[in-house]
Write a structure and sequence with these properties.
single chain; 179 residues; mainly alpha; 7 helices; 0% strand; transcription; NusB-like_sf; transcription antitermination; RNA-binding; NusB_RsmB_TIM44
Length: 179
């Protein structure tokens, strides 16, 4: 007979919930222009907010401490897509995934990738799971791939930012293409 999981071995799903909580915190901090560490501290202290596990806090702190490196990695694998052009949810999912692949020894790469894909499937565009998979698989293998990014009409951009072909956006249907 198998007994309940001990506190040292999290039940299946607890890390998935922690990843989603970390994503919420990172997304909120970016959307509000606040420091992620401050949002994390507020969430930990808040009695009315869902609990923040140690794993969720580790993910947020890891993404914050390695953010510049993480963003460089993502930018090098997300061909034709700048960080600003990606849906904000995808950007946060990728940051968490890259942190887990590069700096977390206790999470196997395939698990980090699958968890990121599940978050993208649940929270982002129809194209996002494939995009997230392609970027993170490239990061894990060290081989960049050609990844179809989410379609530009589904991308949330900061106020005042517009897409243009200079940003690497695909030309609109009515624009002539070279070639």
């Amino acid at each position: 007979m198998v007994g309940p999981a001990s506190p040292a071995t999290p039940r299946k799903g607890s890390r998935s919930k922690a990843r989603k909580r970390a994503l919420d915190i990172l997304f909120e901090s970016e959307a509000r222009g606040e420091d992620a560490q401050e949002v994390l501290a507020r969430r930990i202290a808040g009695a009315d907010a869902p609990p923040v596990s140690d794993f969720a806090a580790t993910l947020v702190e890891g993404v914050v401490s390695h953010r510049d490196e993480i963003d460089e990695v993502i930018s090098s694998y997300a061909r034709g897509w700048t960080m600003a052009r990606m849906p904000a949810v995808d950007r946060m999912i990728l940051r968490i995934g890259v942190f887990e692949i590069r700096w977390s020894d206790d999470v196997p790469d395939p698990v980090a990738i699958d968890e990121a894909i599940d978050l993208a499937r649940e929270l982002s565009t129809d194209d996002s799971p494939r995009f997230v998979n392609g970027v993170l698989a490239g990061v894990s293998s060290g081989r960049p791939g050609t990844v179809a990014a989410p379609s530009p009409d589904r991308v949330d951009l900061p106020a005042g930012v517009e897409l243009s072909s200079a940003d690497g956006a695909p030309p609109a249907d009515d624009e002539p293409t070279e070639g």
